[in-house]
Amino acid sequence: MLLIQPIGLILATLRKICACDGFVRNGSWKNGDFELTTKFSGKVVGIVGLGRIGSAIAKRVEAFGCTISYHSRTKKPNTNYRYYSNIVNLAANCQILIVACSLTEETCHIVNREVIDALGPNGVLINIGRGAHIDEPELVSALLEGRLAGAGLDVFENEPEVPEPFLGLENVVLLPHVGSDTFETSKAMADLVIANLEAHFLHKPLLTPVI
Ligand SMILES: *[C@@H]1O[C@H](CO)[C@@H](O)[C@H](O)[C@H]1NC(C)=O
């Protein structure tokens, strides 16, 4: 999996690409330039969950010259990224917070009001994990009250239901849980299933055994 889509979501959120598109389509451009937006390069990025997906995102984010820190249950031995055992401290010390952990009892609503307020009015939240990682009503009120700069969301608590107030906000980018859904990854996944089945019936080692 290439995991380019989370980077696309970050850029779309910071650079307001979707609102820009609407601005051109509805003719507003003729009345003046689009507002200034935020640059991605050089930002401090906090990643929640440095597993397979979190690490893959970190690698790509590094290419933008961003400083990376992370929060997870335990410190990872094989990385120099700065570790925060407390997610509130991570949020207080980054500008872009990316949620990429798996959903467990512990990580349900891990992004609550305290975390959102620590991220603050210049902070941007990106969720490519699961909807339930975020306390959605708190996110809605933070955005409406200007306590958070913006959010890029690929997942929602009750998808395909999306909280109504999000629909009217221009500092929010909403994706229909597309994750890694591309023609290429769908084909790669289908090919892998077939290769595993072939190996199974030929009594060969499986390509991706479940351990
Ligand atoms: C056109 O779209 C932009 C971006 O969504 C929005 O800010 C603006 O208010 C719209 N203008 C009109 C006239 O609909």
Automatic annotation (TrEMBL):
GO terms for molecular function: oxidoreductase activity, acting on the CH-OH group of donors, NAD or NADP as acceptor. Keywords: NAD, NADP, Oxidoreductase, Signal. Residues 7-179 form the D-isomer specific 2-hydroxyacid dehydrogenase NAD-binding domain. It holds the Pfam family 2-Hacid_dh_C. InterPro entries: D-isomer_2-hydroxyacid_DH (IPR050223), D-isomer_DH_CS1 (IPR029752), D-isomer_DH_NAD-bd (IPR006140), NAD(P)-bd_dom_sf (IPR036291). Residues 1-19 form the signal peptide. PANTHER family: 2-HYDROXYACID DEHYDROGENASE-RELATED, GLYOXYLATE_HYDROXYPYRUVATE REDUCTASE A HPR2-LIKE. This is Glyoxylate/hydroxypyruvate reductase A HPR2. It comes from Forsythia ovata. The lineage of its organism: Eukaryota, Viridiplantae, Streptophyta, Embryophyta, Tracheophyta.
